[in-house]
Write a structure and sequence with these properties.
single chain, 345 residues, alpha+beta, BirA Bifunctional Protein, domain 2, 2 domains, seven-stranded mixed β-sheet, two-stranded antiparallel ribbon, 9 strands, 41% helix, binds phenylalanine
């Protein structure tokens, strides 16, 4: 009897090795038969109690061998079937078919305007400086010669970080000036694009977040004329070679003297009247000679060095360039709006 059952298991091993399931269904039948919870090896293993003691070890090994063979064969067959399926899928491929069109993203109009401004200054030797948006009071205000009682420091205008009088969301990119001046030695020639925040009521014309580009140039003997020439060159590159600019006296705590630069926009349409308030001139940026106090605050000798700085808002320029009626469009991320800037850089 015992040799009978040995033969039975041996036959089973042969049967397993000879199995050739043709598809997934037959493979599953194979798995159920030899490896499933009610597989035919189980009762054979149970037979071990009827085997004479001296043959128990051999019998156990033989049934185990049957099980391992079933596992190995199953794995081999499964891989073979998968490969056959892959091959079939590949054989069905039409390699000459045109690809699906790829949906390309588009740049944000603010990025487009910002990149354009930055690249103009890069051409004349300015390099990009980027800094943090959460800034401390010193870099945003104190170093920039903005007195303690200046209205800009009011909670109504500045977002302070919760429970802090020390940290705030920068209100202008001029904070990059103090960051750079305290960490680099002149000559300094940087252009700093970035996002700024002010606690303003959101409307079609103003938002609590917007973007600026800041410029700073410090060296020995830098004059107001250098600033004017640099800004003229920028305006020509940005608005065309025939652009007219004018500088109006103004006030910023961190520059002295200070000015605002206008470009001549024209007065041809009703819109021109509205956006230039009837003057034909459009204010583009604030600028001035870096106040000696600022240089001193940042550890630069004002007796030896002088410099100029300027800062401009981006959204308004992008609104003018693309004829957009509402600043809020920039921050809503509506793809119907954004995809209209495809292909622009
Ligand atoms: N920081 C000023 C603003 O936000 C702009 C400015 C920058 C003016 C640099 C002068 C020099 O309005």
């Amino acid at each position: 009897m015992s040799s009978d059952i040995f033969d039975k298991v041996k036959n089973l091993i042969q049967e397993i090795e000879a199995s050739k399931p043709a598809d997934a269904e037959e493979l599953e039948a194979f798995r159920l038969r030899y490896l499933g919870t009610k597989n035919i090896l189980k009762p054979l293993m149970a037979e071990i109690r009827n085997i004479p003691n001296e043959q128990k070890k051999d019998y156990g090994q033989l049934v185990n061998q049957a099980k391992q063979t079933a596992e190995a064969v199953f794995e081999r067959l499964q891989t073979a079937l998968e490969q056959a399926a892959d091959q079939a899928a590949f054989d069905g491929l039409d390699l000459t078919a045109p690809p699906y069109p790829q949906e390309l993203g588009s740049r944000h109009p603010v990025s487009i305007a910002m990149n354009r401004i930055v690249s103009i200054f890069e051409r004349i030797g300015f390099s990009v400086a980027e800094e943090r948006e959460i800034e401390d009071d010193w870099h945003n205000f104190t170093a920039m010669n903005t007195p303690e009682d200046h209205p800009a420091r009011d909670m109504q205008d500045t977002y302070y970080v919760k429970d802090s009088v020390e940290y705030l969301l920068r209100t202008h990119t001029s904070s990059v000036q103090s960051r750079v001046m305290t960490s680099q030695k002149p000559p300094i020639r940087i252009i700093a694009p970035g996002r700024v925040y002010r606690n303003e009521t959101i409307s079609a014309r103003s938002h609590c977040q917007f973007h600026q580009v800041e410029g700073l140039y410090i060296d020995e003997g830098v004059s107001f004329a250098d600033m004017k020439q640099t800004l003229l060159l920028f305006a020509q590159a940005m608005y065309g070679p025939d652009v007219k600019i004018r500088l109006r006296p103004s006030y910023f705590p961190f520059t002295e003297p200070s000015a605002e630069m206008d470009v001549y926009w024209g007065l041809e349409s009703e819109v021109d009247y509205r956006i230039t308030k009837g003057t034909g001139w459009l204010e583009i940026l604030g600028c001035g000679m870096v106040d000696p106090n600022v240089l001193e605050n940042c550890g630069i000798d004002p007796e030896k060095y002088s410099g100029f700085a300027f800062g401009m808002g981006i959204e308004r320029q992008a609104m003018l360039a693309y004829n957009l009626p509402d600043i809020r469009l920039f921050f809503e991320n509506d793809v119907r709006f954004l995809k209209q800037f495809k292909g622009a850089f």
